[in-house]
Specification:
The chain is an alpha+beta fold. It has six helices and seven strands. It is elongated.
């Protein structure tokens, strides 16, 4: 969930207000434009009209996303009042001064940050409890093996190739899911990376695999993204990955220079 940024809305509104202060005929201009739009069936006959509509639509979509996020966090703003504030400022007749609007927006942003922190903390606490329960139950399943660090894995297919080291580069296919089965990431096509450049659970787990193998790993949160999580992922999340090890990518041989074969 993205952090709400009301300051961007405020900037848009303040810009519109500033433009209207420079053009005192605002009300007449707005009324005239509305009449023109009503006289035109589509109202979007020219490129500049479409651009104007697009600007309004983009502000509306941005605001709608934020309203949905606010509602999810238990803070609802009256949409009709938002529209009133927008149209009033556009017409140059806002009933609140710019300085007070700026202060109000700063307060709203602080409120949203506090709500976001509450939601994040609650999500991390819930994920911690659910993860502990899941790990305890999953460890009892047939075929599941558990490493000393707590990684759980099951061999889906066993390859015959070499096993990588922590400093090797590997090529893999993978799919990552939450413990509820929801997919959050996948390679789509083979990718190559250094085993020392990924989460600890991957660094340790992939070293257990021979080339050609496919394992399913259940990785505790402390060996994944930890207490902070990442965007779209609660802190303390236990994660599952199906990984297919395709290749250990060896460094290219350095080119020989200054050597000439005798004829």
């Amino acid at each position: 969930m993205k952090l709400f940024k009301p300051t961007l809305v405020a900037v848009a509104l303040m810009t519109l207000m500033g433009c209207q202060e420079e053009n005192k005929e605002s009300t007449a201009v707005v009324d005239t434009e509305i009449q023109k739009q009503e006289a035109n069936t589509s109202g979007l006959e020219t490129e500049i009209q479409k651009q104007a509509y697009g600007l309004g639509a983009s502000i509306g979509m941005f605001t709608q996303r934020n309203l949905e996020q606010q509602s999810e966090m238990g803070l609802s703003l009256d949409q009709s009042i938002i529209i009133r504030g927008f149209t009033d400022s556009l017409a140059g007749k806002s009933i609140i001064e710019k300085e007070e609007i700026q202060a109000l927006m700063m307060n709203l942003e602080q409120t949203m940050k506090a709500k976001q922190q509450e939601v994040t903390a609650a999500g991390a606490e819930k994920a911690l409890a659910e993860g502990a329960t899941f790990l305890a139950e999953n460890a009892k399943k047939e075929g599941v093996q558990v490493t000393e660090s707590g990684i759980q894995y099951i061999v889906l297919s066993e390859g015959k190739g070499e096993k990588p080291t922590a400093t090797d580069r590997v090529k893999v296919n993978y799919k990552g899911t939450f413990i509820n089965g929801e997919e959050f990431d996948s390679s789509k096509k083979p990718i190559t990376f250094g085993l020392n450049q990924v989460i600890p659970g991957w660094t340790e787990g992939v070293q257990l695999m021979a080339v050609g193998s496919k394992f399913k790993f259940t990785i505790p949160s402390n060996l994944a993204y930890g207490a902070n999580g990442r965007p779209g992922m609660p802190g303390n999340s236990v994660l599952e990955f199906e990984i297919e090890l395709l290749e250990i990518v060896k460094p290219a041989e350095p080119a020989k220079v200054g050597h000439k074969e005798s004829e």
